[in-house]
Amino acid sequence: MNTTVQTLDRRFSVAPMLDWTDRHCRYFLRLLSKHTLLYTEMVTTGAIIYGKGDYLGFNTEEHPVAVQLGGSDPADMARCAVLSQERGYDEVNINVGCPSDRVKNGSFGACLMAQPDVVAACVKAMQAEVDIPVTVKCRIGIDDMDEDEDFTRFIDIVADAGCDTFIVHARKAWLQGLSPKENREIPPLNYPRVHRIKLTHPELSISINGGVKSLDETKAQLLNVDGVMVGREVYSNPYIMARVDAEIFGDDNANTISRKEVVHKMQQYIERQQGEYFKPWHVARHMLGLFQGQAGGRIWRRYLSQNGTGKSPDPDLLMNALSAVESAQREIEEYNGQKD
């Protein structure tokens, strides 16, 4: 298979973030940008094949959306790729970057940087069974691997197996001595290393990940690579995505949705959810940063945190939080008017 692979616009994407980029988060982010490529949080092949939950569920509104798989057995990876394609995902991505202990102990994630032949076997097995793109998200190395020689060798071997798209977190992962959180912050960023891979492999699609915090930085990176993947900045300040379609994708017809409109649409989304275990907080926790840098931003976060959890959460959580924000904004405007 893989003879009619679709082309996805990868200029801007949101990173897979464990415990964060679930279906509620992705629905929220899709309201802000039509074109951004969204990724699921990593899901293991074991969970998909043997788990009792629906680990591949998503909202149809999320497209374009990719699933990220964690695993290292080619047969299992191929089976899960088929299931992902059948469910309607636009891409299946192999996790070769996560440094957590549970990932390392399961022989997948960043430790696979040292096993490019295993990753290559997974790529071949998956591409033989599906038509959607099979991509790899990796680091520039792990532990004592050479960032130039060993990283280039990894790219060459996996590319020779048929993978033409890599998303590269421009940091090493130190599997000995650093926690997953520290691995996102302490190893220095090496953007030039990723840029050189694009120069030496112009036929490959190379996206860069790590440390990008603004659309201006995104534009600067796009001078050297094909795409930029942003993670924590989007999560803490999601409204930066409201300008992505116009500024990054060049969509002249893009309409910038207001924060108020987002709140109304997400309140309606909450009201459509079913299940005895669902709580508004499952959605609201992804929206804490919506008013980042705005008057009333702290009031918004505090109201959601205090009223979205517990045994009797506020069913009109988002609308009431918005009212509190707007009340605070009016008071500030009146105060400033009196000063003038």
Automatic annotation (TrEMBL):
DUS-like FMN-binding domain ranges (all copies): 14-317
Keyword annotations of the record: Flavoprotein, FMN, NADP, Nucleotide-binding, Oxidoreductase, RNA-binding, tRNA processing, tRNA-binding
InterPro entries: Aldolase_TIM, DUS-like_FMN-bd, DUS_fam, DusA, tRNA_hU_synthase_CS
Catalytic activity: 5,6-dihydrouridine(20) in tRNA + NAD(+) = uridine(20) in tRNA + NADH + H(+); 5,6-dihydrouridine(20) in tRNA + NADP(+) = uridine(20) in tRNA + NADPH + H(+); 5,6-dihydrouridine(20a) in tRNA + NAD(+) = uridine(20a) in tRNA + NADH + H(+); 5,6-dihydrouridine(20a) in tRNA + NADP(+) = uridine(20a) in tRNA + NADPH + H(+)
Site residues, Interacts with tRNA: N95, K181, R184, R298, R301
Entry EC no(s): 1.3.1.91
List of catalytic residues: C98 (proton donor)
Gene3D superfamilies: 1.20.120.1460, Aldolase class I
PROSITE patterns: UPF0034 (PS01136)
GO MF, any single term: FMN binding
Enzyme class: oxidoreductase
Cofactor names: FMN
Binding site for FMN: P16, M17, L18, Q68, K137, H169, N209, G210, G211, G231, R232
UniProt record similarity statement: Belongs to the dus family.
UniProt function note: Catalyzes the synthesis of 5,6-dihydrouridine (D), a modified base found in the D-loop of most tRNAs, via the reduction of the C5-C6 double bond in target uridines. Specifically modifies U20 and U20a in tRNAs.
Entry protein name: tRNA-dihydrouridine(20/20a) synthase
The encoding gene: dusA
